[in-house]
Amino acid sequence: MTDDPKMRLTAQQVEAEGLADWRILFDALHARFETGGFATGLELVNRIGAAAEERNHHPDIDLTYPRVDVRLTSHDSGGVTSRDIELARTISGYAAELGAKADTASIQVLEIGLDTADYEEIKPFWAAVLGMDEREQYDDLVDKVGRLPALWFQETEPHEVPRQRFHLDIRVPPEVAAGRIQAAIDAGGTLVTDEYAPRFWVLADAQGNKACVTTWQGRGD
After folding, report:
1. 8 A C-beta contact, residue 50 and residue 72
2. Dist CA 29 CA 8 (whole Å)
3. Could you tell me the CA-to-CA distances from 92 to 36, 65, 154, 207 in Å, in that order?
4. For domain 11-102, which CATH number applies: 2.60.120.1680, 3.30.450.40, 3.30.300.30, 3.30.1360.20?
5. What is the CATH number of domain 111-214?
6. pLDDT digits (tens, 9 = 90+) for 88-125
7. Cβ burial, residue 161 (10 Å; 0-12/13-18/19+)
8. 133-135 and 101-102 strand pairing
9. Which of 7, 40, 101, 175 is deepest in the core (most CB within 10 A)?
């Protein structure tokens, strides 16, 4: 493994490190530890937090009952580096001490692909309607806080307005809806209908692919 702490490692280099608890998916290391209880999970998170502060290298952590999910990547390098490998080993040690079992079989990352003959025409619309950021080097969109799946664009032949078998619904707080809708329109989209507002608004990008901005308002529950 390279001695340069900022050099991005290949998937093959990461695999060669023998991190039994971890799997590399796209540009990050992922682990899931079954803690068996919330208190154990909290203790594991506290130990990870202390190690992260000491190294000034901070993972993304989700604490739920009864598991802890951890995601490690070096944002300044665009992928996994030796810093992530080192912290992964430390975290695995803490998990073992606490009796938390790694569950590698359930680790997965969802991405969404959209077929298009011209992704540059519609990418700004999808960035606006979903509130996501563009990554120029990958020609995709990512959620700035890491909650939504990435959206990428699959090159295809030009085609008529698609008859979608599924579409994306983005649920936002009511006070956010109007701004999100206007941003999508400003980015080349159209408002298909507001007939069902404030439950949802139907929008479409310049190629006719539809998405809905939705809120809790106007619903029975």
Report:
1. no
2. 12
3. 16, 19, 37, 47
4. 3.30.1360.20
5. 3.10.180.10
6. 999 999 999 999 999 999 999 999 999 999 999 999 99
7. exposed
8. unpaired
9. 40
